[in-house]
Design brief:
single chain; alpha/beta; four-stranded parallel β-sheet; 11% strand; globular; AB_hydrolase_1; serine hydrolase activity; Valacyclovir hydrolase; AB_hydrolase_fold
Amino acid sequence: MDIKPILSALDKEKFRWIGWDPPGYGKSRPPKRQIFPRGYSCMYELDAKYATELMKKLGIEHYSIAAWSSGGVTGMTMANRHPEQVSSMITWASYGFLGQETNKRLKSFSKLGSYALPDARRIELIEVYGEKLLHEMYSDALTEIMGMSESNVFREGGSFEDVIKNVKCPVLVIHGDKDTFIPISNAHHLNSTFQNSRLHVVKNGTHNLHLKQTHEFVKCIEGFLTAVYTQIN
């Protein structure tokens, strides 16, 4: 429901698009999604291992990554660990750290549980998971992200900054100036920390700007990818 609505707007003759369900989401269950899996700083870091293995199984040696929100942690981890495979990366509404402002917002959301979600979004999710499981998953997700914001890895100035600094591929950072979940300051932080990046700010863009400003989003990412692959070839 997050990516499928924009597929019709994407150029499928010039590019091959691969979307995935991380384990524990959508119909990729079981297993139940873990939080803070042993040996990893968060589940999004473990997802990087799964996503890299998926691309190997598909026989794709070189690819670009498009990563939304916390999926940006997965994408940045992959780009850092596998520079020989990741040609470029796009992040939108993402972050390299979770500051106190975000932590406060998350705590206010946690008091309401899944009822903090907009009604239309909540109804869509209930159709996938059922109300009881949705509440559990939403609570777990907030617990993990709040824990990340208080860890030595994802707090401001945390060790994840070294991951960002070591990403060598070209990066496009996109962020909406009306994102109430991840402040736009996070986008400026990413843009200034990556070795080779540029920032595109979407006017009136919210956290799910790809669904609301789809035309601008698609034009931006496809222009970036075209430039990257023209330069490579």
